[in-house]
Amino acid sequence: MSFLTGPLPLIPEAKGREEPGKAGSVVALGGGHGLSASLSALRLLTTDLTAVVTVADDGGSSGRLRRELGVLPPGDLRMALAALCDDTDWGRTWRDVMQHRFRSRPGVDGSLDDHALGNLLIVTLWELLGDPVAGLQWAGALLGARGQVLPMSTLPLTIEGDVIRRTAAGTRIETVTGQARLAAAGTRSNVHEVRLLPADAPACPAALEAIDLADWVILGPGSWYTSVLPHLMLPQLRDALCATSAKRCLTMNLSNETTETAGMSAVDHLAVIRRYAPEFKVDAVLVDPSVVGDREAFEEAVAELGGRAVFGKVGAASGRPIHDPLRLATAFHDMFGEI
C-alpha cells in the first residue's frame, strides 16, 4: 500500500504574519499569469483561499503531457501552486523548484526538454493517487501553499473558436481548435466565437462547494477567451457562480491589446461576458484607469452587469502590463471593506 493513501500531512503554519483582513473565504478563478497575479495578492489578505483553474491548455509541456499520458494539463495548476508559496526561504525555494524547466544541451533532442519539474511532480502524484484533487492537495502540502488549488473540471477540456480572417481576397471565418492555436490566431485575425468541449463536461465538485461557501469570488484577470471566459461556459460552474451568495468581482486586464483581444476596448471585454453569460452578475469590476478610454461608458457597462466600477492603480511600476501583487492586494483590501 502506498504511503500516499494515508491522511494528508498538515500544511506548515506560517509564522510572523499579521491577522488576515476582512476578505474571509475567497475563490479566485482563471488561469496562467493572470490567476497567479490574483493569488499572489490574495494570499496576503486571507488564509482561506481557493484557486479554480482552467484545464484546457494544450501547448508546451502541459500539452505534451496531456497528449502522451491522457492527464489534465498541469501547467496552470502548477503556476497557481507556485503563487501560493510563502514568501520565506522554504516557499521561495519550492516556488523555484516547481517552475524550473529542463533544457537539453544544444543539438540534443531530449525528452525532458522544456518540461517544468512541477508539471512532472503533479502528474506523478496523479498517477500514484488516481485522483487529481488529492494529488494537488499533496503538492500543496509539500509546498506549504497558503490555500488550495482545484481544476475547474476533472476532465481535460478543449477550447474551439471561430476567427475572422481578413485578407486581400476578402473576409472568411475559420474554425481553430485548441487553446494554444486560438490564442495565437488573434495576432492575425479577430476571435469571433468560442466553444468549450465537451460542452456538458462536469465541474469539479470541490470547486462547486468552494464557490457555494465563499465570501468573495474573483474572476480574472487573464487571457479573456481562454482563461477567464471558460469558467462561465462550463454549465455547472456557471450555475454555481450565478447562484452563490458570495460577492463577485471581475478583474480587468492591464492591456486590451492582447493576441486574443486585438481591437477590443474595456467595454468590449464586458460585452463578451454579458454575451456568453447574461445571467452572471457582479458586485464590482476592478480596473486600472489606464485601460479605460471612455470612463462613463465603462461605468454604464459595469452597471449592466449589476455592479460598480472600482478604479485602482494596480499595474507594475515598470509600466509593463502586469499586475503588482502589493498594489493589487491593496485594491482588493479596500474593495472588500467598501462593498
UniProtKB/TrEMBL annotation:
Name the job this protein performs.
Answer: Required for morphogenesis under gluconeogenic growth conditions.
List the transmembrane segments.
Answer: none
Which gene produces this protein? Answer: yvcK
Give the matching NCBIfam families: CofD_related
User: What Pfam families does the record point to?
Assistant: CofD (PF01933)
**A GO CC term attached to the entry:** cytoplasm
Instruction: Report residue spans for region: Disordered.
Output: 1-23
For this entry, the protein name equals Putative gluconeogenesis factor
Q: List the keywords (alphabetical).
A: Cytoplasm
Localization terms from the record: Cytoplasm
- Where is it chiefly localized? cytoplasm
